[in-house]
Amino acid sequence: MDVADASSRRKVGTSVHITTLDGIVNVNSLFTLAVFIGLTWNPTDPLNSFVSGSSCAAGFSIAEDLVAFHVYSFSCFLFSSLVALGLKQAIRLSRGSVTYRFEIFAHINKTALRVGMLMSGAGSVCGCLFLMLALVNVVQIKLGTLACGSSYSFAAVVPLLIFVPIGLVIYVCMVLYAFTR
User: Fold this and answer.
1) Record's PANTHER family (predicted)?
2) By the 8 A CB rule, do 101 and 9 touch?
3) 103-107 long-range CB contacts below 8 Å, 24 or more apart?
């Protein structure tokens, strides 16, 4: 393998990493916006619930869990974004460190990059799980608790509990695939 092949492979790998980190930050930003919108909603307002019977109405503990899951989700997304932005900055700083034949190469510790990307991905996955739990609590507040057996609550929660984990499994598989390459 000659120097030109190694340099083009290194530059492509670095641009792929930057694009991936940009994607993580963008998705985390959208989810963070959803978390902030969720935090502005007042779950204790009686007008927020469609439940007529008091036995199926969500209690104060579910409203507390809703806020707690939103905060946990925000923390995870913020952690993930900060790690991704830090890695991206490290890549950009290292790009200008070595010049060879008028081309710029990035010398990056691959292990640190992989661990950082894995941490950023784990933060995003945890943030999604906490956001999903917060949405389950929103459904319980709006449509009645799951313990009550409301068909509307189950109809809203079941797709959420199926599609989000499937999406997260696909995401984790892709991250692990990229991690091994």
Assistant:
1) MATERNAL EFFECT EMBRYO ARREST PROTEIN, OS07G0240400 PROTEIN
2) no
3) 103/7, 103/11, 104/11, 105/7, 105/10, 105/11, 106/10, 106/11, 106/14
Tokens 């670095």 identify what position? 14
Domain count, the chain: 1
For the whole model, what pTM was predicted? Answer: 0.78
Return the ∠ at Cα 104 (arms to 102 and 106), rounded to 5°.
160
What are the residues whose beta carbons fall under 8 Å from the beta carbon of 11, sequence distance 6 or more?
A: 103, 104, 105, 106
For residue 96, the tally of other CB atoms under 10 A from its CB is 10
State how far the Cα of 78 lies from the Cα of 96, in Å rounded to an integer.
Answer: 28
Closest CA to 59 of 146, 160, 156, 131: 146
User: Half-sphere exposure of residue 159, counting CA atoms within 13 Å on the CB side?
Assistant: 6
* Domain that residue 145 falls in: 3-180
Nearest one of 86, 102, 115, 103 to 11, comparing CA atoms: 103
C-alpha span between 34 and 90 (Å, rounded) = 29
118-177 pLDDT, tens per residue? 899 999 999 999 999 999 998 888 888 888 887 888 999 999 999 999 999 998 888 777
